[in-house]
Amino acid sequence: MPSATQWLPYCGAAPAPSGWFAQWNFDPVVLAVVALGLLCGRLLAPQRMNAHYAAAFAALLLFVSPFCALGSALFTARAIHHIGLGLILAPLLVEALRLHQRNLVLSLSQLTLLQALIFWVWHVPSLYSAALSSDAVFWIMQASMTATSAIWWARLRQATAASATAALLATMVQMGALGALLVFADRAYYTPHALTTQLWGWSPLEDQQIAGLIMWGPASAVYLLAAMTVLYRSLGAVRVR
């Protein structure tokens, strides 16, 4: 059984329910990056400015607010954090940086595979544990997840409706598959949370299963809804012609 002091997560020690909302992360580097993004946003056109502000707010929520520390206690919170990187922060960065207007080398199918690979790799228990015991590994995790998701969203916006729909459905399937794997697991995989979930009323296995349900249900549903939206718009465009 690991000791409670073995893991040193970037977001701080696992909080108790009574005080987690006061556990903010005032990392000067993160605050400086967010502030720089806000300053740059003021120099842009209104649409890009709004995307910059929204991306900065998402970064504050994910890395500065007490939600960051909550991920040290609950794998469920960490899973939501990872989903937020891909479904909230990454698309906002695409809009703010106009990544969809740039020439991208990899095809959408290649990026779909790469994004899925990165997401699954960081949920391998040994690598996940490494990220929660080293700031450097933690930021490699965050950067790789966010970057691959952002480039994927950018390429998605350049693709045909058929290709975009297929990529969204493929991403939905892989997200749901990982979620199902966690839901039906017969043991808890993530050692950093072995001693941190009980204060929240969950066993480590229950925490893992709830995280899996979120991946399998709401997160997968977002990709399905996006695919249906793309398909609906493409059919509408055909009717107009």
From TrEMBL:
Pfam families assigned to the protein according to its UniProt record, in alphabetical order: Caa3_CtaG
Main localization category: membrane
Chain ranges passing through the membrane: 28-45, 52-73, 79-97, 104-124, 136-154, 166-190, 210-232
Phylogenetic placement of the source organism: Bacteria, Pseudomonadati, Pseudomonadota, Alphaproteobacteria, Sphingomonadales
Full protein name: Cytochrome c oxidase assembly protein
Record localization: Cell membrane
Keywords (A to Z) from UniProt: Cell membrane, Membrane, Transmembrane, Transmembrane helix
Membrane protein topology class: Multi-pass membrane protein
GO cellular component terms given for this protein: plasma membrane
Species of origin: Allopontixanthobacter sediminis
